[in-house]
Amino acid sequence: MTNELRLSDWLPTTNKEVKIRGWEELDVILFSGDAYVDHPSFGPAVIGRIIEDCGLRIAIVPQPSVTDNLQDFTKLGKPNMFFAVTSGTMDSMVSNYTASKKQRDKDAYTPNGDKGLRPDYATSVYSRILKEKFPDTPIIIGGIEASLRRVTHYDYWSDKLSPDILTTSNADLLVYGMGEQPLRDVIDLLKKGVPFSSLKTVKQTAYLQDKSEELQKNKNWEAVTIASHEVCLSDKKIFASNFKVIEQESNKTYGNRIIQEVGNNRLVINPPYPTMTEKEIDSSFDLPYTRLPHPKYNKRGPISAFEMIKFSINIHRGCFGGCSFCTISAHQGKFIASRSKESIMKEVDTVANMKDFKGYFSDIGGPSANMYKMKGKVQSICDKCVAPSCINPVICSNLDTSHKPLTDIYQSVDKHPKVKKSFIGSGIRYDMLVPEFNKNADPKELEEYTEEVLTKHVSGRLKVAPEHTSDPVLKLMRKPSFSNFHQFKKLFDKINIKKKLNLQLIPYFISSHPASELEDMANLAAETKDMGFKLEQVQGFTPTPMTVATVIYYSGYHPYTLKKMKTPRTKQEKEDQHRFFFWYKPENQKWIRNSLKKVGRFDLIDRLLPKEDELKKDSFKKGHSNSGSKKKGFVSVMPKEDEKKCGFKGKSKDKKKYKKKRRR
Prior knowledge:
- The structure is a single chain.
- By secondary structure, the protein is an alpha/beta fold.
- It folds into 4 domains: 7-202, Response regulator (Rossmann fold), CATH 3.40.50; 311-453, Transcription Regulator spoIIAA, CATH 3.30.750.210; 460-620, 2-Layer Sandwich (Transcription Regulator spoIIAA), CATH 3.30.750; 629-664, no CATH class.
- It is 36% helix and 12% strand.
- A 9-stranded mixed sheet has the order 3-1-4-5-8-9-12-11-10, with helices on both faces. Strands 20-21-22 form a 3-stranded parallel sheet. It has a two-stranded antiparallel ribbon with strand order 2-13.
- The model is unreliable at 625-664 (pLDDT under 50).
């Protein structure tokens, strides 16, 4: 920043900082599982700044300790309006554990990567403590953990079906999705004197009420009832059927209320707001963020999640891909909310004038890099749509997929006098750049955008995510056929050669996804090997709440067809699938050969692995190599299989004779 920052430029985190602002009391106290980074990419900071912008006195308590006398929960006292609680920018279980349920070595949202400062199920833990300490003060929970656990859901880490997070947290109100719109409405009503207990008709919120209470009506909403939590516990198929309703209502422009019974209570989920307008999303990004971690962390070490996005610009929210393993649309929405060019360029200028900016932006993007300004050509068609994806199985004919506004943003950023280069770090939907798939767009425009990205915004490697090669698996993933990746690679190679760029194309893949069989992974390995890839960017499927794939993983049924589906569940099945990614590692080759022999796939053995006699020759050569030995004529001890062939049977005398003979 050009001006020196003062401590009061951050939201207060201690009583001393509250006093610096001249406040004697607080209206809202926000508890977060993340360290406090005052940046628009960090959800807790956004919520804090929104509350401040509404004219309230707010403080934030980042990463309160839950292992001592719990003084962090009482040190700022009791707020006048409510407590706000979030696990942070990520679900605490995803933050704390890997896909194999091992504890992570580092926490990216904590200084120095220190682990153990964010409890498991942080939202529920914080909320229950606050409710015990301050039983009469309302609690609002939000953030991705609360949002994606808003109904009965499968929790992978405990391997069981859990009720909605309002039940487990004892909170009074849940704000799901991106919280700016509902939070402003809640605060506006409270400022007008509406009791907290009467906040029953705010969109994009959820609450519990006793089943005996009458449901507060809204003439514009209809209600749809899904199976109760107790029924879901006893019938996996019915649990699966719930998800179709939840996903469709969450992705509508004008959704219905969702009702679910939980014990003696009724869960009420009010419909979401329509997609944020340009003015609304601009107002969120234009708030007075310092864009830096709180000074209290200066001596504690870097916060890696911040370092990664420090010099990046988020230009839109939402994703219309609807991938069955992804939670973006469930939280940010299916429709794209794009910032104005003016707002983006204002932030570019702010970052470019920061003291340590060296002229390079790490990312100009969003959840998917190339969806900026894309929306329905006729809004009334979108308003009636219930499809979870706008581009699967084909790109909707009503979707405007022009990349021109995006190209204009890139070029405008690069024209800034203090910018040397801007990179695209977000994932690019390569399928939308393939004319055979994206028939809505002008092929010439698609090639121009791709050339712009490859020549000016990539540092050596372009990462894209085909995810799999099997058409049945890709269909379930809501991803296009792998044939589109072949088409994109042709375009990539053409531009790479034409411009003499020497770039690498790095594809991402997922193993152990529902419907993926061992042979599918073998085919994936063979097909990508034939294309010249040795895979690096790979991951195992991690079931997270509010995705189609997770529902299938737990229940065994597809929520839309209710047909049975197979999915790898055991540790061994997952490890076996993952091995095929690394067919080129010697330690995997014997296992791969034997596995493919069992299913009669000798064709895949021939494509993936060297011939067995070649392996024997290599083994013999390695066993008899004298490279690196210090004494001339020295012969290393023979491998056991070669000893047997030579008739030595392990006798040391015979070995000595063999060595003597070799020296001659």
